Amino acid sequence: MLFNSFVFIFGFLPIALFLVWAVAGRGALTKWTLTALSLFFYAWWNPKYLPLLAFSICFNYWVGTQIERCCENGQRRSSNMWTAFGVSVDLAMLGYFKYANFALDNANLLLGTNYEIGRIALPLAISFYTFQKIAYLIDIRRGEARKTGFTDFALFAAFFPQLIAGPIVHYSEIIPQLKSRAFGFIRSKNLMIGLVIFSIGLFKKTVLADTLSAYANPLFNEVSGREIDFVGGWVAAVTFTLQLYFDFSGYSDMAIGLGRMFGVKLPLNFHSPLRATGIIDYWRRWHMTLQRFIVSYIFQPLSLPLNRYAAEKRLTGWSQFAVGIGIPTFITFVAVGIWHGAGWTFVLFGVLHAGYICINEVWRENQKHRRRRRKKQGLPIREASALQIAGYQAVTLCAIAFGNVLFRAASVSDAMEIWHGMAGLSGITAAGWSTLGLGVLAYSAIGILIVALFPNTQQLMRNYDPAYNWDEWKGVSPPRISLVWRPDIKGLIFGALALLLGILFIQRGQAIFLYFNF
């Protein structure tokens, strides 16, 4: 079931709100009602994979109890073994459904064999709920989470607003809210704030993202056998980048809004990433819950021992950088690429962004060194001007758009064709302007202006504590045009228009969210 569908907006959502309201304050009954609704929501797409989700919930709860029992008894080795077992089973499930065909196809190509296992369909949301469970098991082992009752855990794992495509939530963020006495009561304030956030997300998805997709898809689908010029290549890359941002951030807004309607604050997933001044800054703001997962559970466990090794071997300069930063960064971002999809385009996407990160890290260290030198010399330390910041943002956006060609292209060869055009190797001409038409250029320009100048959703709703971790981000990247939503006539008209336009644009067709494919 899609958030951007009539059956969800006019059917499932009001029924779910009514049923939870009807059993509010009844403890386990309230939670099991919402859990059952969440499982129904998941099964609507394809009931075939509901048993897999149920197994994941039950299995990880059981393993979590074993890990905590071992920790309480001081059995560190046993707790590590249980954690490794649980994580291995989770990864094995994900690997089979998502990567078995890719691995076998490449093995056949390499060995000249022709083994077949048939096409394995990807269960909806498996990448997201697998990472959520892995984080839970590791947090239990680290003592950062404590086992709760199965009722709370089942709802934490299945809660429908975040189930399909995140945010990837942590136990410590959700369980205390589920245990609160206020949970389950549908408050008018939460309903209003949640509906406005949901409406903004719906507008982003149906009005902006789906319209941009109508321009981006033909540009990418017609690559084969067609020469891509400079303008066409860059318009394709930038248009898709905007589509991807509005699509996924729109979904995340809708998820956060839905959670708020039920009294649960979900964490932020985006904070104006296309206003980032560097790739490191971009990854802090893009798919933030995935970023913290890879930092906590992949990068840091790799980086810390490698940095100790570099210190023991007294490595310096580029050798120290390669061991302490380069190796863990490349491994981490290859994992990020593969998480997004089983294909060489995603592997190369990860490699490219790892290279970006390393270049950005070198540049940042150079800037720090220059500031220290100026301070030592008694010279003033100049802050970046508005023009310089705009330049950093433009360069970062271009790098992101360049990399997103791999994210969207059907094959590496198609990506190379588009890059060929973006580099001007097919000629830097104005032909692209006439063949593309004004629509794509105008819509892309509008998209860039929105992300560059206007507040993001949580900034617009900043007076109402819009997300779980809003306090950490409310001072970051203030918009050039400051707007604040208030529950007055203007605010109500704004929310109603966003919802109405979002619903009207659904009539063009209910396009799935891009991250449903992952």
UniProtKB/TrEMBL annotation:
One of its GO terms (cellular component) is plasma membrane. GO terms for molecular function: acyltransferase activity. It is found in: Cell membrane. Pathway: Glycan biosynthesis; alginate biosynthesis. InterPro entries: Ac/AlaTfrase_AlgI/DltB, AlgI, MB_O-acyltransferase, MBOAT_fam. The chain crosses the membrane at residues 7-29, 49-67, 79-97, 150-171, 191-216, 228-246, 321-340, 346-363, 384-410, 430-454, 492-516. GO terms for biological process: alginic acid biosynthetic process. It is a multi-pass membrane protein. PANTHER family: ACYLTRANSFERASE, TEICHOIC ACID D-ALANYLTRANSFERASE. This is Probable alginate O-acetylase AlgI. The lineage of its organism: Bacteria, Pseudomonadati, Pseudomonadota, Alphaproteobacteria, Sphingomonadales.
